[in-house]
Amino acid sequence: MVFTIIVHLDVKSEHIDKVKAKLIEANRVYAKDKGTIDWFVSQDVNDPTKFAIVERYEQRSDLQTHINNPYYKEFGRYVKPLLTKSIELHSVEELDTSKEVEVPPRTWSDEAEQ
C-alpha cells in the first residue's frame, strides 16, 4: 500500500521566492531516494504564502530513507525560520482504487436540503 505524507507550509511573505527555490531543489534531491514514488511541490493559487508537498512512498518504512538523507536536516534548518507557523504534516495510506466498489444507497437526510 502506498504511504503518503502531505505537508503544509505557511511562509512569511518576504521569503516566498527563497522557499519556492528550496522546495524545487528538495524535489530534485528527494525524488531520487530509494522507495520514493513521487515528491511533488505546489503553491496555493489564491495565497502565494501557502505551499504543499505530497510525498509518496512505496511503503511506510521508506520514509526512514527520506529522514536519513543528509539533505533532510539542511532543508529544515533553511526553511523553518522562514515560516509563520510550524510545518503541518498528515500521514495517510492511499485507498486501493483498483478494485470494484459498491456504494451503499443514501439512507440519511441532508439538513442543507431542508
From TrEMBL:
Give the signal peptide range: none
What superkingdom heads the lineage?
Eukaryota
**Annotated ranges, domain ABM:** 3-92
**Known Pfam families for this protein?**
ABM
What PROSITE patterns does this protein's entry cite? Answer: ABM (PS51725)
Q: Which InterPro entries match?
A: ABM_dom, Dimeric_a/b-barrel
Name recorded for this polypeptide: ABM domain-containing protein
